[in-house]
Amino acid sequence: MPHYDLVVVGTGSGNSILDDRFTHLKTAIVEKGAFGGTCLNVGCIPTKMFVYTADVAATPSHSSRFGVDQELKGVRWPDVRDRIFDRIDPISVGGAEYRKSHADNDHVDVYAGEGRFTGMKELRVSYSDGRPDDVLTADRFVLAAGGRAAVPDIPGLAEVGFHTSESIMRLDVLPKRMTILGGGYIAAEFAHVFASFDVEVTVIVRSGAMLRNEDEDVSSRFTELAAKRFDVRLDSMVVNARRESTGIKLDLEGPAGTETLETDAILVAIGRLPNTDVLDVAATGVTTMASGHAIVDDYQETVVPGIYALGDISSPYELKHVANHEARVVQHNLLHPDDRIKADHRFVPHAVFTSPQIASVGLTEQDARARGVSYVVSKQDYAGIAYGWAMEDTTGFAKLLADPATGQLLGAHIIGPQASSVIQPLIQAMSFGLDARTMARGQYWIHPAMPELIENALLNLPLN
Ligand SMILES: Cc1cc2nc3c(=O)[nH]c(=O)nc-3n(C[C@H](O)[C@H](O)[C@H](O)COP(=O)(O)OP(=O)(O)OC[C@H]3O[C@@H](n4cnc5c(N)ncnc54)[C@H](O)[C@@H]3O)c2cc1C
Ligand SMILES: NC(=O)c1ccc[n+]([C@@H]2O[C@H](COP(=O)([O-])OP(=O)(O)OC[C@H]3O[C@@H](n4cnc5c(N)ncnc54)[C@H](O)[C@@H]3O)[C@@H](O)[C@H]2O)c1
Predict the structure, then answer these.
(1) Residue 203 shares a structural domain with residue 280
(2) Is residue 428 in some structural domain?
(3) Mutate to test the pocket of ligand 2, among 165, 270, 321 (most ligand atoms within 8 A of CB)
(4) Which of 76, 109, 161, 408 has the most CB within a 10 Å radius?
């Protein structure tokens, strides 16, 4: 039974830990799937490459308001798909090769199999090709095994077949009609992608709004805009699926009672489950929350000394920049056990790369109300700034919440063009404690650039 100083399970953000400061440690890395994890292979990176392509494809649909008449002649799906994966797949293969064969990694053994704990700090690795299992023990473990798509228990769904974000980007042909179950990030991003490629998209949302975790004004604006592009069914659940000669029939229970929809492909996007169960972390004493996420302390250490966890397996945020931040914390704490650092989750931003883009950091207005936090609020429309005129934007806005006593920003929410970039100075201000007035008037804002949206939103805050 090989014994290691360190075993890392998962090659997403976990893989980034092993740099040249770890050569003194006999290390193993265990990966059951494609090297590089979710973000590189089936997550952030390919989806954003599809979203950018979708933005290009959607341009003719709104160019005429600039006096420019364009027509979308067609989308060559195999070329769209292959441009993206011909770029990404070699990165994953190269990453695996580097760990397996490069002299930098002489101290690292790669186990290309599925790990499962069988006892305290004992991990069994099994292989799909029937090779005998390996059993590894180690002084320290890093659990970086991420999560997987949740699948609802709908009668007939498995029989008719469905996609998750793992498979939908590698379709052989574009379907004519696609039904997406869920109204969150993945639904919002893929609905934009496939609708831009001329697929008829239906979105089935269990609650009364899409992206309902966003600030209420952003969620309702997005839901209103989404309903103009997709067939959005709110307060609805699919209760049965079956295949017939003309397509897949889905029985839907919603405000109009029970009705039947027909579709050609289903994308399930109802959230993700952390892989603590598959990894059986309980067998090594690691505890989990009700959501299944591994419980860690401020140092990213689980209740078992020497077992750290990071990213989607332990973080309810389930975002790549959070997984990367936590990987840097774990890396430091493994190297400096007597001088450990804490993870910083104070101001975790996110963006939804749909159309229009959405970005957010800090408290939503409904959060602030529910927590009894005192706040003032301001809004600035894109339509009220010069660059918004240039873009003919009529629906986007920035919304800010601030502490009336100190002027410190409590939350920022943007829906509109380039929201994911426009929000960055607000994240910086919140992270470094810059108050709204100083931020607005203590620097130049390039005229007439998009960040004037932020300058005006800051100035609109009713602060003394
Ligand atoms: C469609 C999609 C789009 C996304 N877009 C964004 C985005 O735009 N921005 C953003 O910030 N985040 C995005 N995310 C979230 C982001 O991808 C994740 O938060 C991030 O990849 C998590 O990294 P991780 O290292 O924790 O896990 P992962 O990257 O999932 O890595 C875990 C690895 O562990 C392996 N593994 C699992 N179980 C075992 C086992 N038992 N044994 C061995 N190996 C195992 C898996 O195969 C995987 O390679 C997206 C996610 C999805 C699904
Ligand atoms: N741009 C990004 O950063 C990005 C993009 C994609 C995914 N992600 C990450 O991946 C995670 C997963 O994305 P997602 O869209 O699957 O999850 P999500 O949590 O964003 O949305 C899930 C949706 O499914 C609904 N739902 C939950 N259970 C359901 C059920 N049983 N039946 C019907 N509907 C149900 C929820 O109400 C919600 O609308 C996200 O939470 C996010 O952290 C991030």
Answers:
(1) no
(2) yes
(3) 270
(4) 109
Residue 227, domain member (yes or no) = yes
- Residue 188 Cα: closest atom of ligand 2: 15
Active site residues: 447
Across residues 3-19, what is the average pLDDT? 98
Report which ligand 2 atom has the smallest distance to the Cα of 212. 39
Q: Which domain holds residue 171?
A: 157-270
Confidence category of residue 120, pLDDT binned at 50, 70, 90: very high
* Cβ of 270 less than 6 Å from ligand 2: yes
- Answer whether residue 77 is part of any domain: yes
| 351 pLDDT tier (thresholds 50, 70, 90) | very high
Q: Is residue 329 domain-shared with residue 394, that is, in the same domain?
A: no
Cα separation, 392 vs 372, whole angstroms:
38
Domains contained in the chain, number: 3
Nearest bound ligand to CA 271? 2
Q: Is residue 211 domain-shared with residue 226, that is, in the same domain?
A: yes
ipTM of the complex: 0.99
Of 253, 270, 287, the last residue of a domain is 270
In a domain, 464, yes or no: no
163 Cβ closer than 6 Å to some ligand 1 atom = no
8 CB near ligand 1 (under 6 Å): no
Query: What per-residue confidence (pLDDT) applies to 1?
Result: 87
Looking at every residue in the chain, the average pLDDT score rounds to 98
Query: Is the minimum distance from the CB of 12 to ligand 1 under 6 angstroms?
Result: yes
pLDDT bracket for residue 437 (50, 70, 90): very high
Say if residues 96 and 87 touch (Cβ distance below 8 Å): no
In tens, the pLDDT along 92-112 reads: 999 999 999 999 999 999 999
Q: Whose CA is nearest to atom 28 of ligand 2?
A: 270
Confidence of residue 464 (pLDDT cuts 50, 70, 90): confident
According to the annotation, is 115 in a ligand binding site?
Answer: yes
Cis peptide before 417 (omega within 30 of 0): no
What's the whole-model pTM score?
A: 0.98
Question: Which stretches of 162-312 are assigned E, i.e. beta strand?
Answer: 177-181, 200-204, 231-233, 237-244, 247-254, 257-263, 265-268, 272-274, 307-309
Would you say 224 is a known binding-site residue?
A: no
Nearest CA to ligand 1 atom 2: 43
CATH number of the CATH domain containing 414:
3.30.390.30
> Which pLDDT does position 92 carry in this prediction?
98
Indicate if 111 and 20 belong to the same structural domain. yes
Atom of ligand 2 nearest to the CA of 182: 24
Measured CA distances, 132 to 2, 10, 44, 353 (Å)? 14, 20, 34, 43
- The CA 39 to ligand 1 mean position distance, Å, reads 5
Q: What is the CATH number of the domain that holds 247?
A: 3.50.50.60
Q: At what angle do helices 216-229 and 185-196 cross, to 10 degrees?
A: 30
Cα 14 to Cα 17: distance, rounded to the nearest angstrom: 6
